[in-house]
Amino acid sequence: MFTVFFSGLSFLMTPAALLAVTGGTMLGIIFGAMPGVNASMAVVLALPAAYTMDSVMAMAFLSSVYCAAITGGGITAILFRVPGTPASAPTTLDGYPMARRGQAGRALGYSLAASAMGGIIGAVAMALLCPSLSMVALMFGPSEMAAMYFLSFSILACLDHKNIIKTLAAGVTGLLIACVGRDLMTGNLRFAWDGPTSVSEPEVLPILIGLFAVGGVLAQTGKERKESRKSRPESNGSLGKVFPSVKKLWQLRLPMARSSLIGVLVGILPGAGATSASFLSYAIEKKLSPYPEKLGTGIPEGIVVSEAANNGAVGGSVIPLLSLGIPGGNAVALIMAFLMARDAQIGPGLHPEYLAGAFGAMLFSNLVMVIIAALVAKSLVRLLLVPYQVVGPVIVVMAFVSAYGLNHNMMDVVLMMGAGFAGCVMVSRGYSLSALVLGLVLGRMWERNLRYAYTVAGGNPERIMTRPLTVMLLAVSIVILLYPVAKLFASGKKD
Asked: 328-349: per-residue pLDDT in tens?
């Protein structure tokens, strides 16, 4: 912990790092406050700037964008009842009524304080857990790592138990796409052809850019056409200058701390992300609050539990990435794909500089974003006056730049556009993008470890099943996969 802490501070001592993290924080707040731009889109929009940096600096820059985007989403959620990111949706339930009563400044203060606390707890948890998990993961053999990847998919399917078939189908689709290219063992082409127009090994990053940026714009454009312009959100008036006192914030320390820890734990789960953390934390607060009937009427508790949880999930989602090579959310999957494109060793073999850079960036970003957000909040209100017909094309143009800037190859742009249309169709049909992304990002690593384990075992699967940890991980995975089915069967018998 102390090694990571001092390494992170040393990283921040350089002017270039301070400039990159501060700039990333400002961009994240602006992007996060724009309705229709989620945290994944914010990372995509920041990619062109990341291409000019080395891998460690880019990791810190993109991490600060991710952190600040979650916080920025709470600003418009409070002022206009329009969450900038889905993770800030529960914030509207109490933030907007509080603002309508003329307490917008206080509501914003509660939101920023909770965001900072959740983000800092998430960063500290990352610094505490990543080194230990990495040391454990280094003792894993190929069979254990393959079983770990399988466990990630089973957890994702369980989280979306209402559409488990579609979730698994999306995950398998991602795995099949990851199989395109040369066979890892024989070198033969699979699902591709050899020639000047061949896409023998499609880049992961352009596909993710298409899924989240282009697909997101297409989906949001459809919503804009359905919604009446009369439903445009109304302003609550002046923000005012009244922020909560230290005494008021101290009274909310337990809900904030509890929600931050919930966010960290949920963020660790593959595909769960900040949105699941904020909704879960709000639901738990309703169970534990001495006055649950007041939640949703405009009380500080509803604001702080949502914002602390979604910011805590940011640090939590980075933990499995840096220690195991498994992304905890869609935005982190984009960062992982970016590092893979830079040939960085993801997972247990990741260089400690990446952890130090991510920790320093997240720690500093969560402190400085309170000041930046408070200063620019009034200006950010004007973002809602910009029609999505303007915002959408800007996002698509930036997506083009991000995809082309990777290898300066137009095939990456074509791949991005195809993924965007496919992603829009999948979302409209109820398929899980998180499952598709997990299969796509982890597919080749899963295959590599599985085939190495099979080779080491001399082609005998029984020898693989004699490894205790492998058997335990597979058993847990099967239980997790069967639990929703058993639960559904049990509820059907009762009826």
From this structure: 778 888 888 888 888 777 777 6
